[in-house]
Specification:
The complex is a heterodimer. In chain A, α7 links the parallel β7 and β8. Chain A has nine helices and nine strands. Chain A is an alpha/beta fold. By secondary structure, chain B is α+β, with helices and mostly antiparallel strands. Chain B is 22% helix and 17% strand. Classes of the chains: A alpha/beta, B alpha+beta.
């Protein structure tokens, strides 16, 4: 119960944090216990760490943003350039592992079409005639040579034709799955925020050495906003198997769980917060959202 | 001025096709919005339908910006409003006779809320209310219909 209480995140950032996150909160002046919104007024003191990103969307009154270090891929020691505020309703939701499981299983199965098909006794070639008369031959009575109990006969309850395992989870469940996955990655110190995906060289070895030096794990998922990414990182990642680059619209729960580390840029964080938080304040769809509404997109 | 008789009235020149998109505004005003608006500020609360905003948003004068909201109640738990800005207390009926009240969207210490609900409902029933706490989803289920009393009680608390 204490573990769940810790994970649910109490009223302030002091509860339920890894030692790394508790250290973060003391660095920015410790005023995160106040109930003001993320927009702080006034300049930070020279000794404090700069806050490089604030939440654009309003944060609920009783929650404060969770923070992460902003790093850079340009140099080996470019860690801890500043802090970024992350919205608590995206990056600090209760850890619903059952929803993660649901969404991961859905992602695996909804595309599945099994093409297995067997022939029934009606479809197997032959077997229309009674093999021998009903009485008098001394053998068991049979009606056709292709019944299921015969060798070479049809299959009684076998797979019938291509079966589709398609089903859709509700949109809000899928959105909550993404939020829970982001939260879990952040809370387990597997999420890193980067200012941008610019590299000094396009050498794949530079990237893998950098990740090994920073102990970011065996597999890394880099996420940028648009499909146009800096050429250096595209060519570096295309030759690497365990480091992958996706646009923000391609982020999904299975990829986040499959890769050990997740790296987001600041623009990606803003995009994800905007898209995922819109679902908290929308009407139910009268008609599909790809048709025009007066205030969307 | 008299027209010279040699001039016959000519038929008017063909004006061509004029495309106008001015009338599309009659269609545009019928397209519904997708996101739920903030409720407007009323003169007095509760409104004629019985709705009341959370305590933080009530006493603000109209001109003040959103930055200066009142602090939420000083309790170890917090109950968010639903997306339609209502209190998340619902009734359920299963098997034709099993009446339950459900409090959803509870954040923070649910067991403290359960203790407070028990203290509040025990004089109403006469015995201890039967409750079920679900920490994972943040819900509290109570046997019996107590939605009106619980909504009023939560409004008093300021949620």
């Amino acid at each position: 119960m204490l573990l769940i209480r810790a994970a649910l995140g109490g009223r302030g950032p002091g509860l339920g944090l890894t030692p790394a996150r508790r250290a973060l909160s003391t660095l920015t002046g410790g005023d995160l216990g106040s109930q003001e919104q993320a927009l702080t007024t006034g300049l930070p003191s020279p000794g404090a760490v700069p806050l490089l990103r604030r939440c654009e969307l309003p944060v609920p009154v009783h929650r404060t943003p969770v923070q992460a270090w902003v790093e850079s891929l340009r140099g080996y020691e470019d860690t801890r350039l500043g802090l970024a505020d992350l919205h608590p309703d995206v990056f600090e939701v209760p850890p619903r592992l059952d929803i993660l499981h649901e969404v991961a299983i859905w992602q695996k199965n909804f595309k599945r079409i099994s093409y297995a098909k067997t022939k029934t006794r009606a479809e197997v070639r032959g077997g229309g005639r009674k093999p021998w008369k009903q009485k008098g031959s001394g053998r068991a009575r049979h009606g056709s040579i292709r019944s299921p109990i015969w060798r070479g006969g049809g299959i009684a309850h076998g797979p019938r034709g291509p079966t589709s395992y398609y089903y859709m989870l509700p949109m809000k469940v899928r959105v909550l799955g993404l939020k829970v996955a982001l939260t879990v990655k952040l809370m387990q110190d597997d999420l890193h925020v980067v200012d941008s995906l610019e590299l000094p060289t396009s050498d794949p070895r530079y990237l893998s050495d950098l990740f090994r030096h920073r102990c970011w794990g065996d597999s890394v998922l880099l996420v940028d906003v648009d499909e146009e990414m800096p050429q250096n990182i595209v060519s570096a990642v295309s030759n690497l198997k365990t480091i992958n680059l996706v646009p923000a619209v391609g982020l999904n729960v299975h990829s986040m769980l499959k890769h050990q580390t997740l790296v987001l840029t600041l623009n990606t964080v803003a995009f994800l917060e905007k898209k995922l938080l819109w679902h908290d304040n929308r009407y139910t769809a009268l008609y599909p959202f790809h048709l025009p509404y007066s205030d969307f997109p | 001025m008299t027209r010279p008789q040699s001039q016959t009235p000519e038929p008017p020149a063909y004006p061509g096709i004029v495309e106008s998109t001015e009338e599309y505004r009659f269609v545009e005003r019928l397209i519904p919005p997708a996101s739920i608006p903030e409720p407007p500020r009323h003169q007095s609360y509760p409104t004629p339908s019985g709705w009341q905003p959370p305590k933080g948003k009530e006493q603000k004068p109209a001109g003040l910006s959103k930055d200066h909201t009142d602090p939420p109640p000083n309790l170890p738990y917090f109950i968010r409003r639903s997306r339609m800005h209502n209190i998340p207390v619902y009734t359920e009926l299963t098997h034709g006779n099993r009446q339950m009240t459900l409090i959803r969207k509870v954040e923070g210490d649910i067991w403290a809320l359960q203790k407070d609900v028990e203290e509040f409902l025990t004089p109403l029933i006469g015995k201890m209310p039967v409750t079920q706490v679900n920490e994972v989803t943040g819900t509290l289920r109570i046997k019996g219909y107590f939605d009106q009393q619980l909504k009023a009680w939560l409004l008093e608390k300021g949620f």
